[in-house]
Design a protein that fits this description.
There is one protein chain. The chain has helices at about 50-65, 105-115, 115-125, 135-145, and strands at about 5-10, 15-20, 25-35, 40, 45, 70-75, 85, 90-95, 150-155. By secondary structure, it is an alpha+beta fold. It folds into two domains: about 1-80, ATPase, nucleotide binding domain (Nucleotidyltransferase, domain 5); about 85-155, no CATH class. The chain has a five-stranded antiparallel beta sheet. It is elongated. The two termini are about 35 Å apart.
């Protein structure tokens, strides 16, 4: 019997998980693995390709235990303000910097000076101590040597 399935991906700070449900919302299978961070003095970072491989591993593991079916859609949720720079083709360049990493502390201070701490909090929805994606992208561009290769950025 061929089933119609929906696949959900949850890229979390601690675990990366994949779940499969049927169209009635019943869980069919799930799999997870620790999110493969590299710890740094300022927090943590992750190679975008390594993270993608973890997602694929979980998806394959979950799909291996399901009846034959078609995945009709994929939904992804991810980690807060974890920033990754992308090249012109949309591939990750350099590390994705964890949302709790503090390496962009100086850039965040400049944002708060330029825009005002209350305005930054209102615009980002974050408290004034949590570093939003923008300052981290600025840090990656100026300090990690990604300026020449990076064309855009996103949150993981």
């Amino acid at each position: 019997m061929i089933s119609s399935l929906l696949l959900g991906v949850d890229i979390g700070t601690t675990l990366t998980k994949v779940g499969l449900i049927d169209l009635r919302g019943r869980e069919i299978a799930h799999a997870g693995t620790p999110t493969p961070w590299t710890r740094t003095a300022s927090g943590a970072e992750i190679d975008p390709e390594v993270l993608f491989a973890a997602v694929l591993h979980c998806a394959r593991e979950a799909l291996a235990t399901t009846p034959e079916g078609h995945v009709l859609g994929v939904g992804v949720t991810s980690m807060a303000e974890t920033a990754v720079s992308l090249d012109a083709a949309g591939h990750g360049v350099g590390p994705a910097v964890a949302w709790y990493d503090t390496r962009a502390r100086e850039e965040f201070g400049l944002y708060k000076e330029e825009l005002g701490a209350e305005r930054v909090a209102r615009l980002t929805g974050l408290n004034t101590s949590q570093i939003p994606t923008g300052p981290t992208v600025r840090w990656l561009t100026t300090h990690a040597g990604l300026g020449g290769r990076a064309r855009s950025a996103t949150s993981v």
